[in-house]
Design goal:
Shape: rod-shaped
CATH class of the largest domain: Alpha Beta
CATH superfamily of the largest domain: Multidrug efflux transporter AcrB pore domain
Order of helices and strands: HHEHEEHE
Strand content: 15-25%
Distance between the termini: 77 Å
Strand order of the largest sheet: 2-3-1-4
CATH topology of the largest domain: Alpha-Beta Plaits
Helix content: 25-40%
Length: about 150
């Protein structure tokens, strides 16, 4: 018995166009289903465990800000559990303290602990120090791209 037709893909496509059409439709439907099932975001949903403390002291030099405000706040904040790293920067009239927590730490609880530590030493700060602000880092609050 002799086969008259070839069994390669182009030959089958010519002989059975409906089969090829159904196979293509199944591939397209599988692609659409996969596309709808995958969550697509510009940035991953990751919160950096960072809390920032800012303090203003009008008329203070960076040295005064560091010795009278920032070092006092750093000492109180260092007792909070879960801290991985503390950095500070003192400028004229203001100071910032960056507190980085270990991964997996509840950031809301950590920020509350930092607020409590700051409030414990706020009476010992100089009178002209304006309100000390504790802020959680929020990656979604900053733009992905800034175009000038």
């Amino acid at each position: 018995m002799k086969l008259t037709g070839r069994d390669d893909l182009p030959s089958v496509s010519v002989r059975r166009p409906v089969l090829i059409l159904v196979a293509n439709l199944l591939i397209v439907l599988a692609g659409i289903a996969a596309l709808l099932a995958i969550e697509i975001r510009e940035l991953p949903d990751v919160d950096r465990p960072v809390v920032t403390v800012r303090a203003s002291f009008p008329g203070a030099s960076p040295e005064t800000m560091d010795t009278e405000v920032v070092s006092l706040l750093e000492g109180a904040i260092a007792r909070v559990s879960g801290i991985q790293n503390i950095r500070s920067a003192s400028e004229e009239n203001s100071g910032r303290i960056y507190i980085e927590f270990r991964p997996g730490v509840d950031l809301d609880g950590a920020a509350a602990d930092v607020r409590e530590a700051v409030s414990r030493v706020s009476r010992r700060l100089p009178e002209r120090v304006e309100q000390v602000v504790v802020v959680k880092a929020d990656d979604d609050a900053s733009p992905v791209v800034s175009i000038a």
